[in-house]
Every structure is written in structure tokens, then in C-alpha cells.
Amino acid sequence: MSVPRSIIVEVQQLREQLVEHNYRYHVLDAPVVTDQEYDRLFRRLQQLENEHPELVTPDSPSQRVGAEPASEFESVRHEVAMLSLDNAFDDDEMLAFDRRLRDGLDQQQALAYVAEPKLDGLALSLLYEGGELVRAATRGDGRQGENITANARTIDSIPLRLRGDQLPARIEVRGEVYMDHAGFAALNEAQRQAGGKVFANPRNAAAGSLRLLDSRITAARPLTFCSYGVGLCEGTELPGGQYEQMLYLREIGFPISRQIERLDSIEDCIEYYRRMLDRRDALAFDIDGVVFKLDDRRLQQQAGFVSRAPRWAIAYKFPAQEVMTRLLAVDFQVGRTGALTPVARLDPVAVGGVMVSNATLHNMDEIERKDVRIGDSVIVRRAGDVIPEVVAPVIERREGRLRRPRMPARCPVCDSEVVQQPGQAVHRCTGGLVCAAQRKEAIKHYASRKAMDIEGLGDKLVEQMVEAGMIDAVDDLYELSLEQIAGLERMAEKSAQNLLDALQRSKRTTLARFIYALGVREVGEATAEALAAHYADLRAIMDADIDSLQQVEDVGPVVAENIRHFFDQQQNRAAVARLLEHGVYWPAEERQRSDSSLEGHTYVITGTLDGYSRDEAARLLKARGAKVSGSVSGKTSAVIAGENPGSKLARAETLGVEVLDQAGFEALLDD
Ligand code: 9MJ
Hints:
Layout lengths: L4 H22 L8 H17 L23 E3 L8 E3 L2 H15 L7 E7 L2 E8 L2 E7 L5 E3 L2 H4 L17 E10 L1 H13 L8 H9 L4 H5 L3 E12 L7 H10 L9 E3 L2 H14 L7 E8 L2 H7 L1 E2 L2 E2 L2 E5 L4 E13 L5 E12 L2 E7 L3 H7 L6 E5 L7 E5 L24 E3 L6 E3 L6 H12 L11 H9 L14 H5 L6 H14 L4 H8 L6 H11 L2 H6 L2 H4 L7 H12 L1 H12 L6 H5 L9 E5 L7 H9 L4 E3 L8 E4 L5 H9 L2 E3 L1 H9 L1
Parallel strand pairs: 2-13, 21-22, 21-23, 23-24
Antiparallel strand pairs: 1-6, 3-9, 3-10, 4-5, 4-7, 7-8, 10-13, 11-12, 14-15, 14-17, 15-16, 17-18, 19-20
The chain binds 5-amino-3-(furan-2-yl)-1H-1,2,4-triazole-1-carboxamide.
The site of 5-amino-3-(furan-2-yl)-1H-1,2,4-triazole-1-carboxamide has 10 residues, from strand 3 and strand 8.
């Protein structure tokens, strides 16, 4: 039975659309359809191919789901060796690299370079013949790698077929496969829940995923490809500059770095390195340095190679984010809700450019899973704003019998009993507000920016005050006198007065902030806001039963139970009453506001707005029914851009999303 022509045409059109959308998403970074629309087209194609299997082609976008597992990877020889890069660790080494190159090439004037972040993943070689992906191989030892074509085909950002009509007969494109932070976190969470292997870092996760014999599993792993060069090329003359060559790769379908730049001198390269180092933590993926390549490809050839690396390229490495040190001891820190967290005391070491002597070990389950012992050499990681963590012990370096950390039976702060609720990983101190650690944390939380926002009342000051016996609970804050505060060590009278003023100002708040500030277990900002919006009245929340609480968005049985439990305790009700007596209030308009003028709209805020913190601006939008998101997509209603906007503004412009300035933002609130 032949397939109706209309079906053949539809399949053809669906493929073209999907390929185009994929290219716009992964390469141009400018999608024009929502994820749902993409999925709809994809499912329609799958459906038609299921009904008419004879229409399936190897380069169909549907063929990225993985194939039957292989028994081993075939070895492949690289026709052009895959070299590594020489490293530089400081500016002098960069200047020396440039000088060597200029001397060798007999060049007096400055050399131009192409700069891009050094992705911390795995090198991949992609061979295309007649525009079609025929082979993907790992770097291996540079001469010989492994054929992982089936796995590479599952990565959406790797084109199965090249774009354009004047394609080279054969071209080998090289680049890096990596996993971004969000993908890595999601994968590890899924692995943890399934009791599978948890990866130490995104690089290991990418490597592990790419080298699975079952490509159907690889297909489900969040891998990304970014190209950085060409190996062999036959049948076309490539542009004479490295930068132009990269633009050519983008044209024929490959993602290239968004941060790529052509620079006029080695001084500009050093400046680029500093800029990237500053931005390192804000990137969505790990980079371990910056790569510079001579732009002029004729000069590249002239410069040639030394042993395993080109003379015309260099990697200027960042300070390592993972280093090895010794675990000296494990202490237990008591949090606001009494949870005991194991903290690693380390032999001090520089990680990512900062000295680190403490790192989190998360919880006892993690310690057991990783088999960390006191005295072990351990890998410590510090990435971005995330607190440093112990990734794993280096078992090979373990000597003799080392002791496993043990959860203490009594609280190290107040000596109350430590218990573990059945079915829960956390151990808690049962001391409640008897425990100074819990009292300190409760007060710190109350004063924090997203809670009562008491300016000048930082963690150190709270600790000092609790230790001096000046405050036991949050309501004591409002009874502090100028003399008491000024009497503290390192506290000037002026600062003491400022703190008193801040305490006074903090009394005017919102219901949501107040609920959040109380620190009910598992009631975060969003839940506090949902509770305030639902009940619009503190008394109603304090007296709500479990069933009623579960009517609130995001409140499940556990959180409902926590809220009920909190307000069932006489001491908590009394504390609330005392706070209100001290004059904590939220203006009525805030309380009763149930404006929905912005319902169905999603906004993204970037930059600084005059007179509003980012949180405050978000709160005002949400109070009118809007959603506030952290990332710009085709679904964003508008991006609100204040002073010094970030990359979100550029992204809005690429996507054609409306951009509002301060006046536009204020107009939204007034409507
Ligand atoms: C990475 N890892 O991002 C190279 N790389 O060039 C970039 N690696 C490279 N270039 C030649 N951007 C050998 C390796």
C-alpha cells in the first residue's frame, strides 16, 4: 500500500519545521515557538512515522531517541590528530606565549586572536559526508578514539544533516559536549530518587552519559554540544580567519560559543580573561578557563605544533573549583528548625580563588553514600555562590583505619536529645527555643532581607546579642534600648541608632513577609505569599484546619501539618501576640489587595529599578496577579529593565519580547 501524497508532504514539512526550530533554539538562541508547540509538531511527526514506518529516514528529527545497546565501542582513527592545548596560569605566561609566537612568525605588530570560554566537558569529533553525520568519536588519546555515533545522534544540538547547498564533501567538526548546571542538578536528583549513580560534577556526568552503551539512556541525558573548530575539510575552501570559520560553522548548523570574540592583541585577551573570570559564576555551565586561538589561519599553519599541542593556541586556566585537601574533623551545626548538618573542617585550601576551611557534607545519608571518613583526602568543590561542599573522598589515598563521622546523640549546643523522625533523613535537636542555636537562627531568619528586612542586623550581631543574653526571641528585638545596643563590642552610637531606626521601620510590613518571618518549617516565601493571598488575614491562618490549609496553592499535607503544629504551640501564639503588641502591622490595602489586573502575564526583571528592590518589584507585580520569572522565553509578556540590565535584556531583544523601563513598570502598577 502506498502512502498518500498528502502524508508524504506533511511529514516532509514537519521535518523541515522541526529542523528549523531546533536550529533557531540551539544555534541562533532565538526560538520562535514555545516548547509546547515544538512538542506538538514532534508528536505529530512521530505519529505519522508510526503509521507509515517506510517514511522513516535516519536524519529525521524523530531519530534522536537512541538505538539498541551496543556491546562495546568500536575504535576509530582520527584522520587529523585531535590535539590538546597548552596552558597558561598567569598574565606573564600569556605574554610569553604571544612573544614566542610573534618571534616565530617574525611579526612585529600585534596578533589578533579569537577568544572563547573553555568548556569543561568532553571533546567530540563529528564527521559529515555529503552533509550527513556519519560518525562521532571521542578524542581518546588524540590519534584514536571511540565511535559513539549512536550516542551523539541523541544530542539535539548536534545537527544530523548540515544546512545550505554548497556543503563540503567531507568535514569534521570538533567541539565540546557538556552538561549545564540545571541539567546536572535535575539528572542527579532523578538518579538519587531512582537509587542510581550520583555524579560528582557536570563533567563526570557528561562523560558518563556520552559513554553509555545504551544510547536510549544517553537520549534522556541533558547534553549540549558547542563547536570550536574544524579537523579535516574536503571539497570547500574554508574562510581564512578562525573567527570567520566559526561563523561559517554556525551557518551550516553548529552552535558556537555565545561569548566568542575576535580580539586585536594579547592585552585585549588578558582583559577578556578578567571579564570571563568575573562572569564565570553567572554562566549556566562550568568553564575552566579561556581559550585563545590565533585568528589568521595561514599564520596558524606557519606556526605549526609542538608535541601534542598547536603553537597558535593556548588555554588560560582559571583557579580550580575542585581541589584536594584533608578532612580534619566533622562538626554538627544546628539550624533554625533544629536540623543537624554535618560540617567538614578542612585543612585550609584555595578553591576557585578563595580560602576554604569549612564545607558542607549535607547529611548523614550523603556521608554514608560517599563513605567519607575523618582523616581522608577529599575533593572540595566551590562553584559560584554555592557553599563549598565535599564531593568525595579520594579512596586511593586512604591509609589505615579511619573513623566514620557519627551523629551525636545529644545536641552539641544545648545538650537536648537528638532524634530522627521515621522515614526522614534529617536528625533534629529536640531543644526547640531552649537551644541557643535554634534561637539564633530563628532571629537571623526573622531579620533577613526577604522576611522583616531589618537593615544592619546581620548574623554576627544576632549571635552577639543572643550570647550576651540581650535577646532570647524575636519580640525581644523591639525592646532593645540605644544604650544596650551601643554597649556591644565594636558598635558605634550612630550605628546603634541606625539599628533602632531600622527596627522601627521593619514594623510596617506585609502579611506574607510576616508569615515567612515566623519561620514555620517548610513555609518559604512562595508559600507565605500563597497563604496571605488565600486568607488575607493572620487570625484565619492561625486558626485554619488541615483541610482548609490544603486548599492553598502548593500546600500539601506535610506543610499543612507544619503550619497547624506551629500555631498549636502556645509559645508561638504568644510570640505573635507580643510582636503585634510591639506594633508590627501591615497596611490594610496590602491585606485586602486582590487585584488581578496583571493575571496571565509573566514578567522578568533585570537591572536596578529606582526606589524598588528586585524583591519589592516582584511582590508588587505578583500582588496584581502576574507571574515573575527568572528567565526570558517566548512566553514572557515583557522584560522590565532598570539601570545596568543583564543579558536578559539582550535575550528579550533577540526574542522580540517587549521591554519596559522604570516608567513602563510604574505604569503597570497604576493600571
Ligand atoms: C574548549 N574546551 O572549550 C578547544 N575548547 O581547541 C575550545 N577546546 C580546543 N577550543 C583545540 N574552545 C584543541 C582544543
